[in-house]
Specification:
2 domains, Glutaredoxin, alpha+beta, about 15% strand
């Protein structure tokens, strides 16, 4: 009788274990189905909020919902950044600094390497991310702006004014918060001829859309030698401090870096006519979906490996203890 009782209890325990496993698997499958069904709309909503908080345009109230296109929009044709390493930048180009003073590009070269970022000051999208990413990186680098290197933030929009440059510079100098930076970080504006010549020398291709009155462009910072030769490109909106430091060290010695794999982020607008975001959003959504799949796979692996073994061991111990009694 005792043996039969123990056997019955063991069978019941096994059935209970199966029920619990079935319930867990059912919950996981249900969760997967819910995420699969709801993820696109949830992701679009959350990412839209994040990007709008960072200056992206979003869909108008009551407008079309966001979707993603795998086809390169016509607005991004011929937009990008060519790696013109060792190319000489014309140092006689004329611009205006943040105070409205006429300056030559060569005024900032000669003794120190220079980081150039090409943006436009009224950009509602990636340009603030470029400057914020540059700022975060430079705050981690031990070298000081104005001492070991200079930074030039140059607007490629001829409509930007020295007043725009002044306000932008004041904000970033305040956040950088190091002595001497004011002598080394300048925000420049210029006419179309100077801008076009500089952009061409740096391999920077952009396009103006008169319908939206915005520019489409890719994102990168460019490190130049003290003599004004292109030494290295750092793409994207986040620049590892170690990579920036190495680029500055090599550029200060006149060394030219090697071509790197370019993962371009394009700054483009939300098109209310099609309800589509730029290529950046599509990539963000893809990465989010990939992370979700990996996490769910890891959860399943943990449950299958640890759950049954641990619970099975408890059942065996309990059955053994009852048998001894």
């Amino acid at each position: 009788m005792a043996g039969e009782y123990i056997q019955d209890r063991s069978d019941a325990a096994r059935l209970g274990l199966r029920d619990r496993l079935s319930m867990k698997l059912g919950m996981i499958l249900a969760l997967c189905m819910m995420i699969s069904a709801a993820f696109p709309s949830v992701a679009n909503g959350q990412i839209s909020k994040i990007l709008q908080s960072r200056g992206f345009q979003g869909p108008p109230q009551g407008g079309a919902s966001a979707s993603n296109s795998k086809v390169m929009p016509s607005q991004l044709k011929d937009v990008g950044i060519d790696q013109l390493l060792n190319n000489q930048v014309p140092l006689d180009l004329v611009f205006h600094d943040e105070a409205g003073k006429v300056v030559r590009l060569g005024d900032y070269f000669g003794k120190k390497p220079v980081i150039i970022s090409l943006i436009y000051f009224n950009c509602p999208q990636l340009c603030p991310m470029v400057e914020n990413g540059l700022l975060e990186s430079l705050k981690e680098v031990r070298f000081d702006i104005g001492d070991q290197f200079n930074v030039l933030t140059v607007s490629f929009d001829p409509k930007d004014s020295p007043a725009d440059a002044f306000s932008k510079r004041a904000a970033y100098l305040s956040m950088y918060n190091r002595k001497g930076a004011a002598s080394g970080w300048h925000f420049l504006t210029g006419d179309e001829a100077s801008i076009t010549t500089l952009a061409k020398a740096l391999g920077f291709h952009y396009k103006y859309d008169p319908q939206t009155q915005q520019f489409s462009h890719a994102t990168a910072i460019i490190v130049l030698t003290p003599q004004g030769k292109v030494a290295r490109y750092l793409y994207g909106i986040r620049y590892p401090a170690g990579a920036v430091r190495l680029a500055l060290v090599e550029a200060s010695q006149g060394k030219i870096g090697n071509p790197v794999d370019a993962v371009l982020l394009y700054c483009s607008h939300y098109d209310p006519a099609t309800g589509k975001y730029s290529m950046l959003i599509s990539r963000v959504l893809f990465i989010g979906a990939l992370i979700t799949v990996i996490l769910l796979g890891g959860l399943l692996l943990v449950l299958f490996r640890s759950g049954p073994k641990r619970q099975g061991g408890v059942l065996i111990t309990q059955a053994s203890a009852k048998a001894e009694r």
